[in-house]
Design brief:
The structure holds two protein chains of two kinds.
Chain A (H helix, E strand, L loop, with lengths): L1 H19 L2 H17 L6 H26 L7 H15 L5 H26 L4 H19 L9 H8 L4 H17 L2 H11 L1 H6 L4 H27 L10 H11 L11 H20 L4 H28 L1
Chain B lengths: L1 H21 L20 E7 L5 H19 L3 E8 L4 H13 L4 E4 L8 H9 L3 E5 L10 E4 L2 H16 L3 E7 L5 H16 L3 E8 L4 H14 L5 E4 L2 H13 L7 E4 L2 H10 L3 E4 L5 H13 L7 E3 L10 H6 L16 H8 L2
Classes of the chains: A mainly alpha, B alpha/beta.
Membrane topology (chain A): Multi-pass membrane protein
Protein name (chain A): Autoinducer 2 import system permease protein LsrD
InterPro entries (chain A): ABC_transp_permease (IPR001851)
Chain lengths: 321, 350
């Protein structure tokens, strides 16, 4: 009994410490959300909230996909192409005999399989993830272009309306996925992702199957990216073989913004998701403030630097005290 | 609330009646697509650009701003909101959604993906917003008007010119824009029937690059090393042609017949190197025409659902006229043909 409560106390203390470094980011995101609601009160309606979260949702998913690997000490440059491939597979299968369930399974299977293969190459051949996923990104882009040389394909209307209509289904899905991540972290395998990222040798000596963990991390990451593609296909009502490209860089930006480190083990999923929310809400806020495009480029850069610098400065201030 | 709604409807009815009186010839009898007649001048126009950095886009934005200034003087437009999706179709969806949220009266858009914007654009149309789509078109027909030149014809005419130049026999290289982009795909598709009909024309290889000089020059340079015999370059984009001509020049190779676009750089090289050239264009003023069309539609005029703009052609007889105006255009820009309100009215009347 006392052991449980003391581990609970330890857990709380660790979470508090991890949250503290995110305090600045939370403040910045909250400020932007409030500003957005002031500029556009319609966001507080169900329809407005739904549309906003739908535009954020795919970025949130790919940021989770990226953060998952970065926490494990890896990185992937294949996020964007995987989104495209997911969208293309969804748009080319759902009109056939496979139907919607078959299409979803196909996307999930391809995502998992590509991730597992990539993970196996990285883990067992000991090649750098950045090179393997860079090569992978070219192959995946090529396959997407072969499957669907130009935008098109078919997504049933009801699926588009269900996932991206005037209801907050996308947001609820995000909540479910985050809860699933929480549950997964409670398993030894989930914990292993952090452990192997933070200190691979230590993790190995404590019995974590480091290589297996890496493969699982890649598989889950690719699954998330492919599912983001599925959602994009539903949201747009079609497939587009190059639509995912910008997601690669944005996923890294959002994860880093959210405090996820490049060296593994450092950072939190909630931080990463917050980072993606900031990138997304920023676009709308700048629109409603009437910034001209050139100013938007500059403002975007300043906001990102600010969001990273503010927590750092706050931490330094605390340390001095 | 109900009263307000009613009085609005009354007003709209009255306006429609006046419109009918004014245009008693019946031009206003059928409102254009998406138009509900409840929006009053001066209008707010949203310009949802996919990517503002390329020079072509900057020049296009220039014609849009100029047109808006004109319409402001006429009391028809009060505000222009500009967004730049930085090449990200997903961001463009978000921008158009924000324009709907901000209740703009008109949206002028170049699509970052032919399909991705369909749903958000039909949402805008449902709200009675005049949506005019030009250059890179969307799939959905729930827009007020689509405005473009014919990309298939672009490719076909260029290929025909090449056939004529080479007498139907020779080895050519085809230079395309990026893969998976509708415009580049359509131009290439348009060229295919002409190539099929002229089997004497052998396509050595094809390139896919961004519509920029540097990557095109790089691609052509490596092809020059590999291919000692090239009789023609069927380039399907202006900056691509400039890159190709420069690659030939750097390698000391004799220039070959080269098709292209109205890129100032290409036109100047064409004259300077004395090569056999041909060019057409995607006129930048499609932007101005789109704003004009949106406002006309909001004013209750019927506008065609598709406005096909004929491709202006530049050949040896007309190139001097274009080069004479070169100084008015950026060095890496496009020298577009002249336009005025009379031309717009003529295009809208088709």
């Amino acid at each position: 009994m006392s052991a449980v409560s003391s581990s609970g106390w330890l857990y709380g203390a660790i979470q508090r410490r991890r949250n503290r470094s995110l305090g600045g980011l939370y403040l910045v995101v909250a400020a932007f959300l409030i500003l957005y609601a002031v500029l556009f009160p319609g966001i507080l309606s169900v329809g407005g909230f739904s549309k906003f979260t739908q535009n954020w949702f795919p970025l949130a998913l790919v940021t989770m996909a990226q953060a998952l690997l970065m926490l494990n000490g890896g990185i992937t440059l294949a996020i964007g192409p995987l989104v495209s491939l997911g969208a293309v597979i969804a748009a080319t299968t759902m009109g056939t005999a496979l139907g919607v369930p078959g299409g979803i399974l196909a996307v999930a299977f391809v995502g998992l399989a590509i991730g597992a293969v990539t993970g196996a190459i990285v883990a067992h051949l000991r090649l750098p993830a950045i090179i393997v996923t860079l090569a992978g990104s070219f192959i995946i882009t090529g396959v997407a272009l072969i499957l669907l040389p130009r935008p098109g394909g078919f997504i049933p209307d009801w699926l588009s309306i269900t996932l991206a209509g005037h209801t907050p289904v996308a947001f609820l899905l995000l909540v479910v996925i985050v809860l699933a991540w929480k549950a997964f972290l409670a398993t030894p395998l989930g914990l292993g992702i952090y452990a192997a990222g933070d200190n691979p040798i230590g993790a190995f000596r404590s019995g974590v199957p480091v290589e297996q963990v890496k493969i699982v991390a890649f598989a889950l990451s690719s699954l998330l990216a492919a599912l983001a593609g599925l959602f994009v296909a539903a949201q747009t009502g079609s497939g587009d073989p190059v639509i995912g490209t910008p997601f690669t860089l944005n996923s890294i930006a959002a994860a880093v913004l959210g405090g996820v480190g490049f060296l593994g083990g450092k950072g939190t999923m909630r931080g990463a998701i917050c980072g993606s929310l900031l990138l997304s809400v920023m676009i709308n806020v700048m629109f409603f403030l009437g910034f001209p495009p050139v100013a938007q480029y500059i403002a975007q850069g300043l906001i990102i630097v600010g969001a990273v610098a503010v927590p750092e400065l706050l931490a330094k201030g605390r340390a001095r005290r | 609330m109900n009263n307000l709604e009613n009085s609005r409807r009354l007003l709209a009815g009255a306006a429609a009646a006046t419109a009918l009186l004014v245009f008693s010839a019946g031009t206003a009898s059928a409102a254009a697509n998406c138009i509900k007649g409840d929006r009053k001048a001066p209008y707010t126009v949203g310009w949802a650009n996919i990517y503002s950095v390329p020079t072509w886009m900057k020049q296009t934005e220039g014609t849009i701003s100029a047109e808006v200034e004109e319409l402001k003087k006429a009391g028809l437009v009060k505000d222009l909101m500009i967004t730049d999706a930085q090449g990200n179709a997903q961001t463009q969806i978000q921008h158009i959604q924000s324009m709907i949220d901000a209740n703009v009266d008109a949206i002028v858009v170049i699509a970052g993906s032919s399909n991705a914007l369909d749903r958000v654009i039909s949402d805008a149309c449902d709200k009675g917003i005049a949506v005019v789509n030009f250059d890179s078109l969307v799939n959905t027909d729930k827009v007020t008007a689509k405005i473009n030149t014919d990309s298939n014809e672009w490719g076909a005419t260029a290929a025909k010119w090449m056939v004529d130049q080479l007498g139907g026999k020779g080895k050519i290289i085809i230079m395309n824009g990026p893969a998976g982009i509708s415009v580049s795909d359509d131009r290439r598709k348009g060229a295919q029937p002409v190539l099929d009909a002229n089997p004497g024309l052998e396509v050595i290889t094809e390139t896919n690059t961004e519509y920029n000089v540097a990557p095109a020059q790089e691609a052509m340079t490596s092809l020059l090393f590999a291919n000692p015999e090239i009789d023609g370059v069927l380039s399907l984009g202006g900056a691509l042609s400039a890159g190709s001509v420069m690659a030939f020049d750097r390698q000391g190779r004799e220039q070959v017949p080269t098709s292209g676009e109205n890129a100032r750089q290409f036109l100047e090289l064409w004259k300077e190197k004395g090569l056999k050239g041909w060019a057409t264009m995607q006129p930048n003023w499609l932007g101005a025409l789109s704003v004009y069309t949106a406002v006309q539609a909001l004013e209750g005029k019927d506008v065609p659902a598709f406005i096909k703009v004929p491709l202006p052609v530049i050949d040896d007889s007309t190139i001097d006229g274009y080069l004479a105006r070169a100084a008015d255009f950026p060095a890496d820009g496009y020298i577009y043909s002249d336009y005025d309100k009379a031309l717009f009215d003529k295009l809208l009347a088709q």
